[in-house]
Amino acid sequence: MEKIATRVAYGNALKEFGGDARVIALEADLGKSTMSATFGAAYPERYLDMGIAEANMIGVAAGLATCGKIPFTHSFAIFTPGRVYDQIRNSVAYPGLNVKIVGSHAGVTVGQDGATHQALEDIALMRALPGMTVLSPADANETRLAVKAMIDHTGPCYMRTGRLAVPQITNDIPSYKFELGKGVTLAEGGDLAILTHGYMVAASLAAREMLAKRGISARVINLHTIKPLDEEIVLKAAKETRAVVIAEEHNIIGGLGSAVAELLSEKYPTYIERVGVKDEFGKSGDPEALAGHFGLTAGDISAAAERLIAKNRCCIRLP
Amino acid sequence: MKKDKLALTAAQIRRWVLEAVYLAKSGHIGGSLSLAEILSVLYWEEMKVDPQNDRDPDRDRFVLSKGHCSPGLYAALGLRGYFDIDELNRFRTVKSNLSGHPEMNGVPGVDMSTGSLGQGLSVGVGMAIAAKLDQKDSRVFCVLGDGEIQEGQIWEAAMSAAHYKLDNLVAILDNNNLQISGEIDKVLNPYPLDEKFAAFGFKVIPADGHDFDSLRAALAKARQTKGKPSMILAKTVKGKGVSFMENNYAWHGAPPNKEQYEQAASELDKTIAALEKEVG
Q1: Of the candidates A63, A89, A94, which has its C-beta nearest B125's C-beta?
Q2: Which strand ranges, in their side-by-side order, compose the sheet holding A157-160?
């Protein structure tokens, strides 16, 4: 199946659901990259160019939301939320306004633009805000459903999308159902669980194939909603497998790995391995080459899984 | 000359500002006192608002971008009938919704939560765009501090207000010339204000921020301005109405002690008593 970037699917979805007159798109001069321009072409009267002025864009969105609109703001994730944390915190999250912040070009797979444009902390920043829903869809279908869910949900949301075209996964899973705040089991398995989101979902499924060849059965859970975390699905996976790998295109500090570590250390202590960018900045390069450089491939996930299983063999506390 | 009857309202706002900050032992008194006439003329005359229906979607909006002057806003809202004015006795306490900075959730009449400087004008732009999109005649009034405009976001917002031709947006600059560390032109000079805001596409209207007729004339000019936002440059005195607080930046965010409170209360009570005789 053709690969599609989640940012492209996002633009199409906002246009598809944009018939709702409450929906307003605000863009900080990157519409042809964030793909908000797809909405803009269909609904020019509700497409507001805010120029290269992200702080103001967030405030304007807040003002629109106080008047019953559903504003979607757009820029690269490095700038929104990256550049405007205080505006999001004080003008959106604190008053609990119905603003949807969409940050595209998240992660190192931005590629050649390099470290200054590769957001690796966006989830950490947004996850720390009370009342903020944080989303990271894996493919086009999931992105579409996430856009619909954000419109239906009243309250602030942050969603990251990616620049790179990614494989289509969720359409092929008959049981797949999108529900805000609920993880999705993409493949069953009993020896360990791989928890993942966004760009790393495809690599996690590939890692599962690699592990299967070595007789290890891995469950793959896609947590498209990072906050609120689906505690039930995570705890069930930990209890049933006692080995949890978290794979994400984000700093290992503050992302899904941290969210899962916080939950499990309190409710069901379990050894985990975090596959992500190891507390460093990105760099320029071909996106796939960068994924290799920063240890974000199926091979890296599979190796982490094997390390975890070996650790459990020597140290596990049996019930 | 007969005193303006709003003068009594402004004096009552000042008295409640003093009371709230004294009881809370904290809060921003100087910049609240400089706002009393501006708030009076907006809430009692200019704005289309109804305290009994404070979420009316067709109402005019008010954003206090200099959110630390919440005592002034709360006093105006309480006296206007949005809530029981006695709530100001619990300003900044854990049992009250009257936080140090205005909160739109839990305080009737507050249209936007503010406090982090530089953000309110952007919110006003969003409200004004929403009214234009919905073809409503709602107008948006946004009060800015003169130190606050050192924030770059103000100028982003100014650019967007002019770009979208928001003639339903009226910004009012409380130009008392003082910020927490001293005179604004000594801390980081934002002058000349008229030329800057005119260059950013605003109709710039100078006013005396303590003179009702001057404020009314400025608001009338703003009402008549088409195709661009208005900026009323209101010349004010920080600490206005309390002799020893006037033009002294030490009163930016400090509460009075008992002796200072008693002196200030006595001055304001005398002003109120005199005004009650003249206009009551």
Answers
A1: A63
A2: A47-49, A23-27, A70-76, A100-104, A157-160, A133-135, A225-227
Quote the tokens at residue B232: 């009323």
The string of pLDDT tens digits covering residues A4-43 is: 999 999 999 999 999 999 999 999 999 999 999 999 999 9
Determine what percent of chain A is predicted with pLDDT higher than 70. 98
- CATH code, A4-166: 3.40.50.970
Q: If we measure between CA atoms, which residue out of A80, A73, A87 comes closest to residue A25?
A: A73
Joined together, the tokens standing for residue A69 give 């609109």
**Which position has the higher pLDDT, A316 or B142?**
B142
**Kind plus residue range of the DSSP H or E element containing B120:** helix B120-133
Nearest CA in chain A to B142: A63
Range(s) for CATH 3.40.50.970 in chain A? 4-166
All residues of chain B having their beta carbon less than 8 Å from the beta carbon of residue A156 are none
Segment A76-123, tens digit of pLDDT:
999 999 999 999 999 999 999 999 999 999 999 999 999 999 999 999
Chain A residues in contact with B129 (beta carbon < 8 A): 48, 60, 63-64
Q: How confident is the model at residue B2 (pLDDT cuts 50, 70, 90)?
A: low
Domain around B148: 5-279
Is A319 a residue whose pLDDT tops 50?
Answer: no
Cα–Cα distance measured from residue A80 to residue B92, given in angstroms and rounded to the nearest whole number: 32
Cβ atoms of A177 and A184 within 8 Å: the answer is yes
CA atoms of A149 and B47, how far apart (whole Å): 37
Out of A63, A94, A95, the one facing B127 most closely (by C-beta) is: A63
Clarify whether A179 is annotated catalytic: no
Which pLDDT does position B279 carry in this prediction?
A: 84
Please report, for the domain that includes residue B192, its CATH number: 3.40.50.970
Q: Which residues of A touch B (CB under 8 A)?
A: 24, 45-46, 48, 50-51, 53, 55-69, 71, 86-87, 89-91, 94-96
pLDDT value, residue B3: 78
Is B119–A87 a contact, with Cβ atoms under 8 angstroms apart?
A: yes
Q: Of B111, B239, B235, B246, nearest to B174 (Cα)?
A: B235
| Count of C-beta atoms within a 10 Å radius of residue A295 | 15
**Beta bridge partners of residue A244, listed in sequence order:** A193, A272
As a whole number, mean pLDDT of residues B134-140 equals: 98
Given a cut of 70, whether residue B26 has pLDDT beyond it is yes
Domain count, chain B: 1
Show residues of chain B in contact with A70, CB under 8 Å: none
- CA angle A196/A197/A201 to nearest 5° reads 75
Q: Which of A27, A54, A248, A249 is labelled catalytic?
A: A54
What per-residue confidence (pLDDT) applies to A316? 56
CATH architecture of A181-315: 3-Layer(aba) Sandwich (3.40)
Compute the distance between CA of residue A310 and CA of residue B237 in angstroms, rounded to an integer.
73
pTM, rounded to two decimals: 0.97
B 242-271 near A (Cβ less than 8 A): none
